[in-house]
Specification:
Length: about 210
């Protein structure tokens, strides 16, 4: 399993260098115990309350691009503090990234309070997505009622005849992806508009559009 080691201290003071070195040493040992491959070691000197950290975005890029599958930190406060910590926990949970800590010598054990907050955040986000999808559906229905023809925007309408391809507005798919909807959510939205299309078809056509 490819893993990322993340070490942080809060100040630029010289004595903090020892803390960073100790964190890295402990986490390399933890990775060895679990047979993990350390892909990168990220060190930062920033406040845990600060969300705008280069190392954090570098770390998330590894996970988003599926180059690494696990995160190692000394303890949960090294990742962040306060709302920043909760936001990062939530993001890593969405990416299905397990977190291992040196202090637990294994997987991170969230406190009951943190677990409850994450459940609330997840529920709120889900309802925000539902509201967003409903607004899109209502907007599309209104546009169609006013004469909008999604078929005019299809990039494949002039292709040679053969097996008939499922017709749906690819530009709408691109727009919904920019709004961070998943392909499953996009497929459900299109189905609600009368386009009988699967998540796999939406994903494939989206890739074709970007590779064209």
């Amino acid at each position: 399993m490819n893993t990322i080691i993340y070490c942080r201290v809060s100040t630029d003071k010289k004595e903090q260098e020892t803390s960073l070195s100790r964190q890295e040493q402990e986490l390399r040992q933890l990775a060895q115990e679990y047979g993990m491959n350390v892909l990168s070691v990220i060190t930062e000197r920033k406040s845990g309350y600060d969300i705008e950290r280069d190392g954090i975005f570098q770390m998330l890029e590894f996970f988003t691009n599926q180059k690494a599958e696990c995160l190692l930190i000394q303890d949960e406060t090294r990742l962040g503090r306060g709302n920043t910590k909760i936001a990062l926990f939530h993001q890593l949970n969405k990416l299905q990234i397990p977190i291992y800590t040196a202090i637990h010598n294994g997987k991170l054990e969230l406190s009951e309070a943190d677990s409850m907050v994450l459940q609330i955040v997840g529920a709120v986000e889900e309802y925000q997505r539902k509201i967003h999808n409903i607004k899109i559906k209502r907007g599309m229905n209104k546009a169609i009622e006013e004469g909008y023809d999604p078929g005019k925007n299809l990039s494949n309408r002039n292709q040679s005849p053969g097996r008939q391809r499922m017709s749906f507005p690819i530009e709408e798919v691109v727009r919904l992806r920019k709004n961070q909807l998943t392909f499953e959510e996009i497929a459900k939205t299109l189905n609600g508009l009368g386009y009988n299309v699967s998540k796999a078809t939406v994903h494939r056509r989206y890739q074709e559009f970007h590779n064209a």
